[in-house]
Amino acid sequence: MQFAFTEDQLLFRDTVAEFFANECPPEKVRWSWDDAVGRDASTWAALAEMGVIGLTVPEAFGGMGMNEIDLLPILTEAGRYAYPAPLVETVAVVAPLLTESAPAAIAEKWLPGIADGSVIATVQLDDQPFVNDMHIANLLIAQRGDQLFAIPAEHVRSTPQVSVDGARRLFSIEWDEADAELVVSGEAALQAANRAFDRGAAATAAQLIGLSEQMIAMTVAYVVDRKQFGVPIGSFQAVKHHLADAELKVSFARPAVWAAAYGLANGSADVDREVSMAKCFASDAAEVVARKALQNHGAIGYTTEHDLHFWLKRSWALASSWGDAAWHRRRVAHLLLDA
Amino acid sequence: MQFAFTEDQLLFRDTVAEFFANECPPEKVRWSWDDAVGRDASTWAALAEMGVIGLTVPEAFGGMGMNEIDLLPILTEAGRYAYPAPLVETVAVVAPLLTESAPAAIAEKWLPGIADGSVIATVQLDDQPFVNDMHIANLLIAQRGDQLFAIPAEHVRSTPQVSVDGARRLFSIEWDEADAELVVSGEAALQAANRAFDRGAAATAAQLIGLSEQMIAMTVAYVVDRKQFGVPIGSFQAVKHHLADAELKVSFARPAVWAAAYGLANGSADVDREVSMAKCFASDAAEVVARKALQNHGAIGYTTEHDLHFWLKRSWALASSWGDAAWHRRRVAHLLLDA
Amino acid sequence: MDLTFTPAEEAFRAEAREWLEANVPVGLPSGDTAEGFALHVEWEKKLFEARWSVVSWPEEFGGRGASLWEWLIFEEEYYRVGGPQRVTQNGIFLLAPTIFEFGTDEQKERFLPRMAAADDLWCQGWSEPDAGSDLAGIKSRAARDDERGGWVINGQKTWTTRGAFCNWVFGLFRTDPEAARHSGMTYLLVPLDAPGVTVRGVERLDGDEGFAEVFFDDVFVSDDLVLGGVNEGWGVAMATASSERGLTLRSPGRFCAAADRLVDLWKRQAAAGEYPERIDSLRSDVAQSWMEAEAYRLATLVDVTGLVKGVSQGARSSLTKIYWSELDVKLNETALRLLGPAAELIETSPDAVDGGAWMKGFEFALSGPIYAGTNEIQRNVVAERVLGLPRK
Amino acid sequence: MDLTFTPAEEAFRAEAREWLEANVPVGLPSGDTAEGFALHVEWEKKLFEARWSVVSWPEEFGGRGASLWEWLIFEEEYYRVGGPQRVTQNGIFLLAPTIFEFGTDEQKERFLPRMAAADDLWCQGWSEPDAGSDLAGIKSRAARDDERGGWVINGQKTWTTRGAFCNWVFGLFRTDPEAARHSGMTYLLVPLDAPGVTVRGVERLDGDEGFAEVFFDDVFVSDDLVLGGVNEGWGVAMATASSERGLTLRSPGRFCAAADRLVDLWKRQAAAGEYPERIDSLRSDVAQSWMEAEAYRLATLVDVTGLVKGVSQGARSSLTKIYWSELDVKLNETALRLLGPAAELIETSPDAVDGGAWMKGFEFALSGPIYAGTNEIQRNVVAERVLGLPRK
Question: Per-residue pLDDT tens for C96-140?
Fold first, then answer.
């Protein structure tokens, strides 16, 4: 029994965290809001160089052949720095899906590109109305009922949608089966889609943990510094209790997210329940933390001149993506009660 | 437009409040826990003398011929003093039911006795598993599907049940239709039962407001007096905010309870919704207030030597009687959304 | 107890409804951008021309001398037909009651009619960079200038809502730097086109330029722009703040209309038949939000019954402020949960439901627990001044 | 990361499960009444005889030298089969770790085996009438008696859980009245049958005589009953308090078992087919409670992984205490909502579901946010010592 990351995993995480600290400071997030494309190819390339983008791609295709546990700390850091790029879609969802479910020809066609950073992949499962980052993607994996298809981006017609998080890029899309390659169909496709959904949800939960930790850190720094009535506002009991509640939420969501990654990596029989619990707790935590962070910042946090709002809005968006807390709570209820 | 009680109503309330202050101090509630019967006939008789018991009985039968609005402040005081007796059943529910729905013979038989205090009535509607105060009642009004019956108490077989509130007396009962008189049947009976349920719920909500106000008052007195760390604990911001939250809950439940009484008295088309909103808010408020009251009393409130627990337990019991908050919220949802 | 309106009041309602239904503009953009603001001012001028802009004011100042009950009725009707939030609200709901209470006759005549007509557009100048919740911590100074018969202001105000679009600001300035924290302040009315005033717009959470910083650099204001007594500004400001917390700024009409829209959204989503489980699981939350708005309406009826008899809300206005601000958040949050993954779409997004109004409403609502004194401060006030807990 | 147990650990589990399934008593009454307590002591003696009473202690003191992992396994199995809360818990989980850390060899030999065997039954003597949350405010004094080589105690302790049934109390006493608030206290072990001790039982919320007041009137205790150094009691007590907040007192096994019983209750209620709407509407609440218990188990696995490596929880144990105490309330509350109008029935009521265990559990749970330092104090600790906010 060892519910912790290895030294190697933590070292890799620290390296990536340092990279984000340098390459994805808040100004970069702000740029991503303002820029028409809002995606920085060089950062993606550097992450590919570091092995992050190919982390889940098998070594045979030039990747690291690592699993969801290895990926988790990386995604948490990506959340912490509000890194605007389709890591969840490409690394957490599509690469494992192609690895597990695609015929050799399709896997060989796309996985090496993912690993070396030249292929950006995104995904749309049933019930997901929008696709992330279609504007920079080369590959779309999409579900239609009990079939999963691979569609080269040039065959996808997309309409931009606008998120409250200006750094996100959402699209509604259309495509024709004539332009698509069948990846897998039937029961196997439904299972693959379910597994893909679980991976997306768990990866998003990991990002929400990082986002939440960062919002707490920003708020602590602010309330220690900000004085009213002649004292730091962080000395008021109401402020203390707000922040203690925030810390409480994150502290008990975090192990649930770890357990989901562990369940995915080890083919747990209860993986659906483990993932739903993770996303439920991480979404709830992020929403509470975001509220407390804004309330304790007061008016300064209510301006877009301050950086806090990047984290608030990313939290809102991710909390309701890949199933919101209520959706996942219902799924757990179903698994517990209707068995 | 005048959303307030009249001077007369307030005067009557003050008289009754003074009566309870003298005749139903906490020691009387404690006695009611310990005594086998736990009901004080002389207090009931005095209330009948004052007109409280016959408040809703028509003047023709010796009552006051008043309505739900007149009754509301009285029930609130009964809640405030945790008065242990079937006021809701006899005064709020059965007397109006017999007045509105019973054939003359039945009304003439029972209503004068209710008004003069010699008849204590209780009630069981469908879905209510237990009956209050069967041990002292003379009359039971009971629903069986689309029929309402009047059963003299001697024909009711009862088994005592034990409530967490030791001053309550609950019974599961059995009775035979051969011993019962039919009060009303068919659609009219269903309507009468629904109206009776609304009256019981609104009356219980009124008691919950009084209970809540009293728990706040007790807690305020305690935290002003109790010192820790060299200061009254009421000076800590966490304690202040607990109590502010409690006051907030009661302040916005109270007008909803008034509106329910008004709706009942004036035959509002939306009376079901108005009553359910009242009971939902009053139950939620009482539960929150009880939690805050106990938490701010600390260990002293956790003993039965202190009086607080009488109020806590009455609140818990009444919050889940005549429909709990969730039940009434669902009813409002149905009325709002399925129309 | 009587929850019916008089025939005269019902006639007032009918008249208001008829006019509003015919005239309330549809799909006005946010009033917190320069372009939107201009359109809103146009609408408010129309309101004024039909004498609906300040119904509760005396006729001589542009109102109808309506009772508080009639004012409530007007607000209900205004929001029921989808009337937009008033960009003049900080003038008509906050400054105006203060002018009625503390202003000279000359000030009333000079300011009120132009305010009613949306000719003058007023913003608040309370907060400063180091004085937010701690309003008594303000540092902006107004120094006496006997020669010119007035005051010379230096300093800075911040979080001035719609400051970038208004032409007047009211606020507190320190006129006796030696006085204790809550003394030595004066309530001044300052034209924003006065020499030495600089206004810088600040973008709000929702992307609108709704805030402004206002800088004062040797700005002269004459004595006739002092509201209430010199060095007595704190007491005057508290009257304004009480209006801000209490019912004038937030009539139940707005929340009840929003709650009805939420019910309508639920029904539309249910009728569309998508995600039935999500829709179904939110039944109780929708009902709860609707009831909370209704409870606010009922509590207001109690308060107004008291006010009509001359019983002021006093510190209980802090309960009101906590309640409406948290209700507003919850109501919009419930709508966003109904929308699921579409919740994040905003106004400019083609697939946004109801034009992104719910996310906009949510973002706007989040300011409620912060401004007009944070809800933490309000809870202190409730505990200390309603319940009597010790200050220290 | 590895969430599997070793074969040796699984063998330990199998052995524990087999013994517990064969021996755990069914339907034991509450251990917080005189009669119930005697039955519980009997059970705990049986546990001891099979060497299951203190599995994590060294064998020489009556344990099995089990690892923390094995201890968690034992607790899981103990509560899974419905084992009752331990009436010896304040000894074995709170005092014992303190004796292991601060006790002399003689004290260990004298007290630990008898504690493991339930021969000595220990209660805590922390709170006093004027020192609850403010533990440093205690006034009970122990005056030096050089002649007899010991201390003479005068004063009063209160809220002493199961004090009316125990024969020893441990607690803090002021030995240097001149010292500052957190100094000058000594941690003493006091036999309750010593001359001058009076114990008065106090009835708890749930009707059991679970509390006691303990009065000390010139009670002599000899020097060998000082735990840790004279005047160093505060530091020793803090070690005990940390055990009380942290995982030893509240292993996840208990909450996970309760959560499983809640799921089972839901299924039984659903199968009964009555009130289907109520049952259905509580699906998400049941799932939430179950997940919260599971999250507590997972968080404990993280903590134990750290503890095994020598990383102490430190102030984060306050997070743990807030979490389990609020989880316990919510879990029982959810069960009560499932029961609807039958929720109020208690043990002695013929129609009580599960023998009234849920109301009893709710009442017991309500003490959680109060004792061992109120959750308000714990939130201060989290803010100040985990997050680094300023004390003043």
Answer: 999 999 999 999 999 999 999 999 999 999 999 988 888 889 999
> What string of DSSP letters covers C5-74?
--HHHHHHHHHHHHHHHHHPPSSPPPTTSHHHHHHHHHHHHHHHHTT-TTTTS-GGGTS----HHHHHHH
A149-153, C201-205, C206-210: least confidently modelled range: C206-210
Average pLDDT in chain A: 98
Claim to verify: residue A164 and residue A96 sit in the same structural domain: yes
Q: Which residues of A touch B241 (CB under 8 A)?
A: 238, 241
d(C-alpha D321, C-alpha D246), whole Å: 6
Domains in chain A, number? 2
- C159, C210: one domain: yes
- Segment D200-232, tens digit of pLDDT: 999 999 999 889 999 999 999 999 999 999 999
* Residue D93 lies inside a defined structural domain of this protein: no
CATH of the domain at C322: 1.20.140.10
Label residue C246 by pLDDT band (50, 70, 90).
Answer: low
Domain's final residue, options C206, C232, C258: C232
Chains near A, with 3+ CB pairs < 8 A?
B, C, D
Question: Does A337 touch chain D if contact means CB atoms closer than 8 Å?
Answer: yes
Residues of B in contact with D134 (CB under 8 A): 228-229
In a domain, C108, yes or no: no
Which CATH number fits the domain that encloses residue D13?
A: 1.10.540.10
Question: What per-residue confidence (pLDDT) applies to D247?
Answer: 62
3-state secondary structure of D50: coil
> What's the confidence (pLDDT) of residue D274?
87
Q: Which domain holds residue C57?
A: 7-87
Interface of A with C in 218-237 (CB under 8 A): 227-229, 233, 236
Report yes or no: D77 and D23 within 8 Å, Cβ to Cβ. Answer: no
What digits encode the pLDDT tens for the residues B208-238? 999 999 999 999 999 999 999 999 999 999 9
A·C CB contacts under 8 A: 112
User: Residue A224 contacts by C-beta under 8 Å, 6 or more apart in sequence?
Assistant: A232, A234, D388, D389, D390
Size of interface B-C (CB pairs under 8 A): 144
Alpha carbon B321 to chain centroid, angstroms: 9
Asked if the structure places residue B101 within a domain, the reply is yes
User: Which residue, D39, D60, D87, sits at the end of a domain?
Assistant: D87
Q: Is A170 among the domain residues?
A: yes
Averaged pLDDT score across all residues of chain C:
94
Chain segment D37-93, per-residue pLDDT in tens: 999 999 999 999 999 999 999 999 999 999 999 999 999 999 999 999 999 999 999
The catalytic residues of C are 244
Same domain, B224 and B110: no
pLDDT digits (tens, 9 = 90+) for A72-120: 999 999 999 999 999 999 999 999 999 999 999 999 999 999 999 999 9
Q: What is the total residue count of chain B?
A: 339
* Phi, psi for A222 (deg, rounded to 5): -65, -45
Would you say residue D244 has pLDDT above 70?
A: no
Nearest-angstrom CA–CA distance, B160 and D348? 10
**Distance from C-alpha of A330 to C-alpha of B224, rounded to nearest angstrom:** 45
Q: B315 is in which domain, residue-wise?
A: 189-337
For residue A237, give the CATH number of its domain.
1.20.140.10
Place of tokens 């007397």: B95
Q: Which of A236, A304, A305, A321 would best serve as a mutation to test chain C binding (most C beta carbons within 10 A)?
A: A304
- Whether residue C304 is contained in a domain is answered as yes
C241 pLDDT higher than 70: yes
Residues C222 and C256 in one domain: no
Residues in chain D closer than 8 A to B303 (CB atoms)? 202-205, 211
Rounded distance between C-alpha atoms, residue B243 and residue B221, angstroms: 12
Question: Which two tokens mark C63?
Answer: 């109102």
